[in-house]
Design goal:
This protein is an all-alpha fold. It has a domain at about 15-70. Helix content is about 40%, strand content about 0%. It has helices spanning about 10-15, 30-45, 50-60, 60-70. Helix 3 (about 50-60) packs across helix 4. The protein starts with 11 loop residues before the first helix and ends in a 28-residue tail after the last helix. The mean pLDDT is about 90. The structure holds zinc ion.
Length: about 100
């Protein structure tokens, strides 16, 4: 059986001092998060680094509030999947906002 391991979830720096976010680390943005950021920017048109910077600046509550609106299907109101181009529930094309 193949086990997939997330290198960020297993990051020893993130586990230190009960940190919740990568921006709390002196190494932010480290090579791990930069690689993930490049992959997500390329494939899904979103930046995990920009998201972390926004959370640091505005707080997690405001970020979640904005993301709740951003990732809502304009046609049926369902939550959109970041990994898919279309709404999984009604098939409407996802409008990419960066
Ligand atoms: Zn929909």
């Amino acid at each position: 059986m193949t086990r997939l391991m997330c290198s960020i979830k297993l990051c020893e720096n993130l586990r230190k001092d009960s940190r919740r976010f990568c921006f709390e680390c002196d190494a932010f943005p480290c090579a791990r998060i930069r690689h993930m950021d490049l992959r997500y920017r390329t494939k899904y048109h979103l930046s995990v680094i920009d998201n972390l910077v926004a959370i640091k600046r505005d707080g997690i509550r405001k970020f979640v509030q904005q993301e709740t609106t951003r990732w809502r299907c304009p046609q049926c109101g369902s939550v959109l999947c970041v990994h898919k181009d279309r709404c999984l529930f009604c098939g409407a094309a996802k409008i990419t906002k960066e």
